[in-house]
TrEMBL record, chain A:
Name of the featured protein: V-ATPase proteolipid subunit C-like domain-containing protein
Organism field: Rhizopogon vinicolor AM-OR11-026
One GO cellular component, as annotated: proton-transporting V-type ATPase, V0 domain
Subunit structure: V-ATPase is a heteromultimeric enzyme composed of a peripheral catalytic V1 complex (components A to H) attached to an integral membrane V0 proton pore complex (components: a, c, c', c'', d, e, f and VOA1). The decameric c-ring forms the proton-conducting pore, and is composed of eight proteolipid subunits c, one subunit c' and one subunit c''.
Entry keywords, A to Z: Hydrogen ion transport, Ion transport, Membrane, Transmembrane, Transmembrane helix, Transport
Recorded family membership: Belongs to the V-ATPase proteolipid subunit family.
Compartment annotation: Membrane
Gene3D superfamilies: lithium bound rotor ring of v- atpase
TrEMBL record, chain B:
PANTHER family xrefs: VACUOLAR ATP SYNTHASE SUBUNIT AC39
Claim: Ion transport is one of the keywords in the record: yes
Keyword tags: Hydrogen ion transport, Ion transport, Transport
Pfam families: vATP-synt_AC39
Top-rank lineage group of the source organism: Eukaryota
Name the UniProt record assigns to this protein: V-type proton ATPase subunit
SUPFAM superfamilies per UniProt: V-type ATP synthase subunit C
Family indicated by similarity: Belongs to the V-ATPase V0D/AC39 subunit family.
Transport in keyword set: yes
GO cellular component, one term: proton-transporting V-type ATPase, V0 domain
One example GO MF annotation: proton-transporting ATPase activity, rotational mechanism
């Protein structure tokens, strides 16, 4: 059992058990209420988190893919300079993943409108909040994995091209299939918010949290 | 998962090494080299390859020793470029590659000192990749203990020498025992280090280092058949504890007395079965005799080594390519030297006895 195992598994579990037992023994066990958490959290939180995850994870995937491919192109290009121009297409595939994230971020942020607190907690707004969050998470994770895939394939493509020029087009086919994954994420992300209206004020109600 | 983080530190260097490897001589190059009539032709043919004009400043007539030295210098420069651009853990891996040369240099200096050769001449014959700062001080040593305390304890070779501090005098037989003991410790240490590096590097290097250990075991066994001074217990202590022949094969080889027992041990291991297979050639040339078998075995070992090193280039994102490139380039230098010698001595019938790589 190394220190990292203790830190990553042991300590959090220990803290959770302490908190749970504290709540239990001080008769405030009902403070742990998932339903109340979901009802009281503002839909803005969910929406903004979703957009943040969308663009953040997409850029992470694109950047990861670009450095994976770029290092190999630079290394292979020392002896075989001809590969550097052709293999920029792998970098472009990775970049496209970030563009998907930006597009979805723009589409999602059009749903964010200012609504006063008292009129915020309607069913439609809850739905929009959750749709933005999970749509953003979907697009972000899809783009992250797509960027990784294209990055590793692009790195191998660069080194294979440096060794034998006829291999490049064949490895490129693999990359094309990989980059389609990001497109799938984009499509599903769009479908997920298809029915979500933008945040709009409902009837003014005295909400439970002001009691 | 190794593909996700490898390129952060080592992607550029892997590209460089693969570029070096694509410049190794192919069958077409060897075909044109073997047709050269003189060493000047040879030099012209080599200038069309990645070697370039490495012999441009040499005065004619060329000698094969110059060709070998200059070719080795190219390899040393390439290695130094890689080593200076590497960070941990690749830098430690590359250091391990240099320890083998250091061991050879140390043994060369000790042997040369025993036979009272000139220090400067010995230092010039050392391999450039195995040079360390306190090397000239080795020439004043008289026994291993003193050697260790004064020089070796600060070098990376210190842990390998601890086991042979008890060797009493430095004479020729003991030097070979020291060399093999130290090399055994080095191989086992390298093997353990590579295991800590994780999956693709460990897999590739385990195969290569395991074969190296088995090759040394078989060579020590065969060479010790006629030596009365090397007892079987001493022989067994020189076998590395890694490789396909460990532990069962090592035990049998430790007690072996003739080459048939060695053959039997090798038949048990699938990959080594063909090493002693000389049925076809024996029918052609008559019985080869022990020396012939040993020479043929040596060639088969080289072929197997080249084969394993070529295989390591099929995997990306691992450090084995650096080690394999060094070994393949050394084999290529040996090939060029062989062809150059055959040209220089006009022995064209044996010119094709080199080991082709690609």
């Amino acid at each position: 059992m190394g220190y990292t195992t203790y830190a990553s598994f042991g300590l959090p579990t220990f803290l959770v058990i302490i908190v749970v037992l504290y709540l239990l023994f001080t008769d405030s066990g009902e403070a742990f209420d998932v339903g109340r958490f979901l009802e009281e959290t503002s839909p803005f939180v969910w929406g903004s988190l979703g957009i943040g995850l969308c663009i953040g994870l997409s850029v992470l995937g694109a950047g990861w893919g670009i450095f994976l491919t770029g290092a190999s192109i630079l290394g292979g290009g020392v002896r075989t300079p001809r590969i550097s121009t052709k293999n920029l297409i792998s970098i472009i595939f990775c970049e496209v993943v970030a563009i998907y994230g930006v597009i979805m971020g723009i589409v999602y942020s059009a749903k964010l409108q200012s609504v006063p607190e008292a009129e915020l907690y309607t069913r439609e707004n809850y739905f929009t909040g959750y749709a933005l969050f999970f749509g953003g998470l979907t697009v972000g994770v899809c783009n992250l994995l797509c960027g990784l895939c294209v990055g590793v394939a692009g790195s191998t493509a660069a080194l294979a091209d440096a060794a034998d020029p006829t291999l490049f087009v064949k490895v490129l086919v693999v990359e094309v299939f990989g980059s389609v994954l990001g497109l799938f994420g984009l499509i599903i992300g769009l479908l997920m918010i298809g029915n979500a209206n933008e945040f709009s004020p409902g009837q003014a109600v005295v909400s439970a949290i002001h009691i | 998962m190794e593909g996700l983080f490898f390129n952060v530190n080592c992607g550029f260097l892997e590209g460089i090494v693969r570029g070096y490897k694509s410049g190794t001589l192919t069958q077409a190059h060897y075909a044109s080299l073997t047709q050269c009539e003189t060493l000047e032709d040879f030099k012209t043919q080599l200038s069309a390859t990645d070697y370039g004009n490495f012999l441009a400043n040499e005065p004619s007539p060329l000698s094969t020793a110059t060709i070998t030295d200059k070719a080795t210098q190219i390899l040393v420069d390439q290695f130094n470029f890689l080593r200076s651009n590497a960070v941990e853990p690749l830098s430690k891996f590359l250091d391990y590659i240099t320890y083998a040369y250091m061991i050879d240099n140390v043994v060369l200096l000790i042997t040369g000192t025993l036979h009272e050769r000139d220090t400067h001449e010995l230092l010039e014959r050392c391999h450039p990749l195995g040079i360390f700062d306190t090397m000239p001080a080795l020439c004043v040593a008289t026994n291993v203990e003193e050697l260790y305390q004064s020089v070796l304890v600060e070098t990376p070779l210190a842990p390998y020498f601890r086991d042979c501090l008890s060797a009493a005098d430095l004479d020729d037989l003991n030097i070979e025992i020291i060399r093999n003991t130290v090399y055994k410790a080095y191989l086992e240490d390298f093997y353990n280090y590579v295991s800590t590096l994780g999956s693709p590097t460990a897999d590739v290097m385990h195969n290569i280092l395991g074969f190296e250990a088995d090759r040394r075991t078989i060579n020590i066994t065969i060479n010790s058949f006629d030596t009365a001074e090397l007892s079987k217990e001493q022989r067994a202590k020189l076998f590395p504890a890694i490789g396909r022949l460990f532990p069962a094969g090592n035990n049998i080889l430790a007690k072996a007395d003739d080459i048939d027992q060695v053959r039997q041990v090798c038949e048990n291991v699938g990959e080594y079965r063909s090493f002693f297979d000389n049925s076809a050639s024996a029918q052609n040339n008559g019985d080869l005799g022990d020396l012939g078998v040993a020479a043929q075995l040596e060639e088969r070992f080289f072929r197997m080594e080249v084969h394993l090193n070529k295989l390591s280039f099929l995997q990306q994102f691992q450090y084995g390519v650096f080690y394999s490139y060094m070994k393949l380039k050394e084999q290529e230098i040996r090939n060029i030297t062989w062809i150059a010698e055959c040209i220089a001595q006009d022995a064209r019938d044996r010119m094709h006895d080199f080991i082709p790589i690609f």
